């Protein structure tokens, strides 16, 4: 698609985010199954629920204004991050080292999402999409807290066991 205005950019990035979240609803169950540490399994399951709600939130964003829609655009960024995570899963046995790899992979995804939603929220603000801005800020907050939870898990015991 042509990106010639801030609104085009917003639609392009929102469509990418939509693709990324949908990819994560398929990846997170695999990550939960691959993880060994119980708290890490729980963290992935919880974020799966949040991610499903984030997909619905994007639908609400589309419904909030006639000028907003999503297009069928694949997030290659998310696809690559998921592929890397899958390679790490394939190359490791269930246990602390794989758990450390999973935390690292999941944090890359969260940072990627934080960057994407930060830009989207700023664009929504600039374009005067008040409701969209609120919804995007909610998702941004969830991504940040998912990242913080993973940092805590990494510091607590998952990485220690790997050492
Ligand atoms: Fe997300
Ligand atoms: Fe996330």
Overview of this protein structure:
By secondary structure, this protein is mainly α. The protein has one domain: Ferritin, core subunit, four-helix bundle (Ferritin). The protein has helices spanning 6-34, 38-64, 76-90, 96-127, 130-162. The chain is elongated. The model has no long low-confidence stretch (mean pLDDT 96). Residues 47, 51, 109-110, 113, 143, 146 line the site of one fe (ii) ion.
Give a quick rundown of the structure.
With 163 residues, this protein is mostly helical.
Question: How is the topology of this model organized?
Answer:
Elements: H1 6-34, H2 38-64, H3 76-90, H4 96-127, H5 130-162
The structure holds fe (ii) ion (2 copies).
Which regions have little confidence, pLDDT < 50, spanning 5+ residues?
Answer: none
Q: Shape from CA axes?
A: elongated
Helices and strands, in N-to-C order?
A: HHHHH
Strand fraction equals under 5%
Helical proportion? Answer: over 70%
Report the CATH C-level class.
Mainly Alpha
Q: Write out the CATH superfamily name.
A: Ferritin, core subunit, four-helix bundle
Span between termini: 47 Å
Bound molecules: fe (ii) ion
- Radius of gyration, in Å, reads 17 Å
Tally of DSSP β-strands: 0
Summed up, the domain count is: 1
* CATH architectural grouping: Up-down Bundle
Write down the CATH topology: Ferritin
* Structural classification: mainly alpha
Please give the largest β-sheet. Answer: none
